[in-house]
Design brief:
Organism: Shewanella maritima
GO cellular component, one term: plasma membrane
Number of helices: 15
Radius of gyration: 27 Å
GO biological process, one term: negative regulation of bacterial-type flagellum-dependent cell motility
Strand content: 15-25%
Catalytic activity: 2 GTP = 3',3'-c-di-GMP + 2 diphosphate
Number of domains: 3
Shape: flat
GO molecular function, one term: diguanylate cyclase activity
CATH class of the largest domain: Alpha Beta
Amino acid sequence: MRILIVEDSDAVSKILKHLIIQELAYEVDVAPDYQSAIELLKTNKYFVVVADLNLPDAPNGEIVRAVLTEHQTPCIVLTGNLDSAQRKNLLKLGIVDYILKENRFSYQYVVKLIARLNRNRDVKVLVADDSVVSRKFVRALLEQHLFQVLEANDGAEALQVLEKEQGIQLLITDYNMPNIDGFELILRVRENFSREDLAIIGLSNDNNESLSARFIKNGANDFLQKPFVHEEFHCRVLNTLDSLDMIRRLWEKANKDYLTKAFTRRYFFGQYNRDVKDAKEPSVYSVALLDIDFFKKVNDTYGHDVGDEVLIEFAKRLNQAFGQHFTVARFGGEEFVVAFKGLDAEKSWTLIDKFRQQSYATMINTEAGPLEVSFSGGVAAIDACEGIDSALKHADELLYQAKQAGRNQVKVT
């Protein structure tokens, strides 16, 4: 990732360059004037340009117009002062944002904004509004911040898009829409999407003072009154997504193992209980309990850092093989479990044993060099009457038999 800073103040450019490299590890070029910046823009492709509004050879913001119109590159504007007319002109041009050069926090905000822009490229936003003009305006604002934008002309179409399109993280919905209005849309969306899955911002040009409270009580994360200024819209969107990121990080800390990123034992049991509760009728279910062979020897011979590398790689392989359709969890130490919802013990054993052969045939690269690592396992079906604890106990007994029989094998009954 490459960033261009256009700034005639050596002190400011050094601070910005240092912060961007230190916190984001991006490549940074610096141009002290308009002409130098244009030459760099001709020969390099930049992710974003951070430009001073008043340069020695271009005092009237010419660099901003060149970056946006001639090079179609996102632009963040730095300035010592900004009057109302300048602000309106910059916003019409389509800048990402403007930042006043007041203190160190201003430069840290620039770095935070660049990082957010990079993340935005993977964020899908759905805009639901029956007004084409309003919808296109919101879309243009979002695209300035590099979001992937989808549109729906009412609540009913929005529900169809959410069902069809995977990975939408933010829904921005108007209140007054035909068929399904904003309130009903949010209520229906919240039946299937939690606040950890999808954030919602409500919009309305209605002057009813209770609208914002009603939106939020119905499940929206935030509300914005039309007409709104560009800065407020961007701040609300970015703050909402930052909160969503924070909620997800907290969820991951609570539900994923800190080392291997596999699910925790606690999550495993919770997911099983949810599966049973949501099932309309008793479903086929089986579990595989796996244990890395001679793992203590790896730690004793090569050290715990190498042991950690083995655990991380083993969990990664398990997730790649089974994580998309089944639940993979670390039970503790070198022991892992895979829950096969919808498969009986024999089918689960077939999958696990094939994985065992493939994994054993592929060495694990570590600081101590490539290591040959095997595992033993036991696979047991879950009886609807006896439950998960009984199945895990049975799988553990089978795992012990596999160890006793020479390791590097999986037992099933």
